[in-house]
Design brief:
Elements: H1 2-21, E1 27-32, H2 40-55, E2 60-65, H3 76-81, E3 87-88, H4 92-95, H5 115-123, H6 125-138, E4 140-142, E5 147-156, E6 171-173, H7 178-186, E7 190-192, H8 199-205, E8 210-213, H9 215-220, E9 230-241, E10 244-246, H10 247-252, H11 255-289, E11 293-295, H12 299-310, H13 313-319, H14 324-334
Parallel strand pairs: 1-2, 1-3, 6-7, 6-8, 9-11
Antiparallel strand pairs: 3-10, 4-10, 5-8, 5-9
Helix pairs in contact: 2-11, 5-14, 6-14
Length: 337
């Protein structure tokens, strides 16, 4: 009488065993970026995802969505806040709409500074204060040091740009943000914010006379075909991407996985930055090969422009709603206090 029962019990136990012994489902980490697969930001995100899966031994499963497949930079911050995505690396220019202090990099004190100064600001006390403000206002976690994009410059079509004075009267497109529009107006030009998908056609048709962007952006879009023929390379501002992790996801992770994400990003950010810098150099060479002419203003001209701009800085801090302590710390970090 007991043997059938025993067999049935063994069969039931065998059937139940896989569900009891199966490893826990992996943690899902979805990463959204707007850039295309060949862009340095996307390449960095791909590498980060691969390294996370390897370092976690499969306990974290990553999914990368590029080219704005899920969200553009304009709406990914909202998606992070609503727990619709776990991670993104949006540009500072987009984040400033949510946390104005991110625009500290656009202040006059930062105009035409070398990359070492830019890093000293965003990696130092100023950057730490901005990161804390992002975390507090958006309830998100900044994973570590920001990813470089590179320096912005002036790119013109018909008019030769040999000095800052040549900008007067030109209509200049920018990607948004108070800093770029202010700087354009300050130098006597007219700011414009045409959406990026329409930029090439608008340049070709003469809707505006130039743009503020980076070498890599112009080269990747082949804007010489839209009549971009000259560059005033003043390194007016240094742009970066901020590695953001959604708050609900981050605080739901066990400490070992929080440490893993942090360590992997920190161990690789120097290489990611180096790759971005190399991409900007390659883009500059490509533009020159397509006949684009570069003019680099001398230090006397850019220093004089910065001095004139600095007279407006206190007012801009208030107007742009940058936390005064953060602006003051930026001055200290660049040595202007």
């Amino acid at each position: 009488m007991r043997r059938p029962f025993t067999r049935r019990a063994l069969v039931a136990a065998a059937l139940a065993a896989p569900s009891r012994l199966r490893a826990a489902d992996p943690i899902r980490l979805r990463v959204s970026v707007e850039s295309v697969p060949t862009h340095g930001r996307t390449i960095a995100a791909m590498n980060f995802c691969r390294r996370i899966e390897d370092a976690s031994n499969g306990e974290i499963k990553t999914e990368l969505f590029h080219s704005g497949q899920l969200y553009t930079d304009q709406n990914v911050v909202t998606a992070l806040a609503q727990n619709q995505i776990e991670m993104s690396i949006p540009g500072t220019w987009g984040l400033a709409g949510f946390v104005p202090s991110v625009d500290v990099s656009q202040l006059p004190a930062m105009y035409a500074r070398p990359v070492e100064t830019a890093h000293r600001v965003i990696d130092g006390k100023t950057g730490q204060m901005v990161n804390a403000e992002i975390a507090g206002k958006l309830h998100m976690h900044v994973l570590g040091r920001w990813l470089d994009l590179g320096f912005e410059n002036w790119y013109g079509t018909s008019r030769r740009l040999s000095s800052l004075d040549d900008l007067k009267g030109m209509k200049i497109r920018n990607s948004g943000g108070a800093g770029k529009a202010w700087r354009t107006s300050f130098l006597g030009a007219i700011p414009n914010t045409t959406p990026w998908p329409s930029v090439a056609l608008a340049l070709a048709q003469g809707t505006f006379d130039g743009i503020i962007t980076t070498n890599e952006t112009v080269a990747s879009a082949s804007l010489w075909e839209a009549h971009v023929g000259n560059v005033l390379e003043d390194h007016q501002a240094f742009n970066a991407y901020v590695p953001l992790v959604g708050g609900a996801f981050w605080f739901g992770l066990p400490p070992k996985h929080q440490a893993l994400l942090t360590d992997v990003w920190d161990a690789n950010i120097a290489a990611y930055r180096a790759n971005m810098a190399a991409a900007q150099i390659a883009a500059r060479n490509k533009l020159m090969q397509h006949g684009v002419t570069f003019t680099v203003p001398d230090a006397a001209e850019t220093d004089a422009a910065r001095t004139r701009m600095l007279a407006a800085q206190d007012g801009l801090v208030k107007q742009w709603r940058i936390t005064p302590e953060i602006a003051a710390q930026a001055l200290t970090d660049v040595g202007e206090a």
